[in-house]
Design brief:
With about 325 residues, the protein is α/β, with parallel strands linked by helices. The protein is built from 10 helices and 12 strands. The longest helix has 19 residues. The chain is elongated and about 70 Å long.
Length: about 325
């Protein structure tokens, strides 16, 4: 009889069923089942769980829990749940997600570079006017956050001939990409940015990183793409920068509150493109393979995959 591993998440019944089916199709040493179907006695012996936006109280029911396999790349919600520091949190590290994100970054960078927002407005106004076309080499794209997603995005942009720079909190090296780090590097790279692509993790250091002060250091007519987390940008400060025409356009896929409230000014703002958190959705098939492999290895060899650094938040 295979070991039962609990799945806990605040997701729809359809999404839960999809995850259970996908993971169980490839799991070798265990069966993934809803937490609600596991007895109280078994819960007290559970050492590993699979989670997707779980209720924080879930962990009180699993006193022997050693590690958690998240099905999402973002784990700030788990850290905010005051999780026992002895419990390792393993985020989803899916190569397919990096490629999906790189594709999205390229698509929306081209959207801005080829002046699609302006042409959309011209169509609405009935204006036939050809805007000046610049080459990708003349467009300075700065990627903020050089983890797996940011590095893949920077490389994809470079392959499409954009002038690419990158920034991270600590020093990183990417072939063909000029990189900056730390507070000094942050101020320097802002000054040379036509399109800022935000792919940073959500931490105490990145919260409100893009505010009135930092936004003002971007060149006039710079644009922003935020595919990371909403609170990294102060929404009111971004609105002020857009309204003053300092920032030309913002493509936003993440927000302080999701879904974005119906009365939020971003919806109707002519210089904002609102996306419903779709830049790099989890691919269930590849994520299921990774999650099941991690748990199989633990059950066979006691090996816990690389967990996040609690102090850094990622």
């Amino acid at each position: 009889m295979q070991i039962k591993i609990p799945f806990a998440g605040q997701v729809s019944n359809e999404e839960q069923a999809e995850w259970l089916h996908a993971i169980n199709a490839v799991a070798k040493q265990f069966t993934l089942v809803p937490l609600s179907t596991i007895s109280a006695a078994s819960r007290k012996q559970t050492e590993v769980a699979v989670v997707a936006n779980p209720d924080p109280d879930t962990f009180n029911e699993l006193p022997q829990l050693k590690w958690i396999q998240s099905l999402w790349a973002g784990v700030e919600g788990l850290l905010g749940a005051k999780l026992n520091p002895d419990i390792a949190v393993v985020r989803l590290a899916d190569p397919q997600m990096a490629q999906t994100m790189a594709e999205a970054v390229l698509a929306w960078t081209l959207f801005l570079h080829r002046k699609m927002p302006q042409y959309t407005q011209q169509q609405s106004d009935g204006i036939w006017h050809q805007l000046t076309l610049t080459t990708p080499q003349q467009c300075n794209v700065s990627v903020f956050g050089l983890g797996k997603l940011g590095s893949a995005a920077a490389q994809r942009l470079r392959q499409n001939n954009f002038t690419v720079r990158g920034w991270s909190s600590s020093k990183k090296s990417i072939h063909g990409v000029e990189t900056f780090h730390g507070a000094g590097g942050f101020d320097e790279i802002l000054q040379h940015t036509n399109i800022a692509v935000i792919l940073l993790p959500m931490t105490s250091n990145t919260r409100a990183l893009f505010n009135t002060q930092s936004l003002s250091k971007l060149p006039v007519d710079a644009s922003i793409i935020n595919f990371a987390r909403g609170p990294i940008i102060v929404e009111s400060d971004l609105l002020a920068s857009l309204n003053s025409n300092h920032i030309k356009h913002a493509v936003l896929d993440v927000f302080d509150h999701e879904p974005l409230p119906a009365d939020h000014p971003f919806w109707q703002h002519p210089s904002v493109t609102v996306l419903p958190h779709i830049s790099a959705p989890t691919t269930v098939s590849t994520a299921a393979t990774i999650a099941s492999h991690n748990i199989d290895q633990y059950l066979c060899h006691g090996t816990i995959p690389q967990a996040i650094d609690r102090k850094r938040g990622y």
